[in-house]
Automatic annotation (TrEMBL):
The chain crosses the membrane at residues 6-22, 34-58, 64-88. Keywords: Membrane, Transmembrane, Transmembrane helix. The keyword Membrane applies. This is Major facilitator superfamily (MFS) profile domain-containing protein.
Length: 96
């Protein structure tokens, strides 16, 4: 059985690996879109949870887990910015 401490890191690692495989061979615009969606949905919450739990173990205070309420929106906004860059980025056309 996997410890809850490591479960979030495992989900994040698997999600990042799948996202990397999905974005291989795509244009930069598509990569930004794929990574934005991936960071917002399957990566941000497990990563914030694991960071909060790890910090809670380090300082030995269960209330320190509330850190995840501050980390989650930051990671989510990073994903939103990546998604918006992917949506509004213009396609690059090579001109000779």
């Amino acid at each position: 059985m996997i410890s809850p401490l490591y479960l979030g890191y495992l989900i994040t690692l698997v999600s990042a690996t799948i996202t990397y495989l999905l974005s291989m061979g795509k244009s930069k615009k598509r990569k930004y879109t794929i990574w934005g969606i991936a960071v917002m949905l399957p990566i941000s919450l497990p990563l914030a949870y694991s960071i909060g739990i790890t910090y809670s173990f380090i300082v030995e205070d269960p209330w320190a887990t509330i850190l995840l309420l501050y980390v989650f929106p930051v990671i989510f906004i990073v994903g939103l910015i990546l998604l918006l860059v992917g949506i509004f980025k213009k396609n690059e056309v090579l001109q000779y």
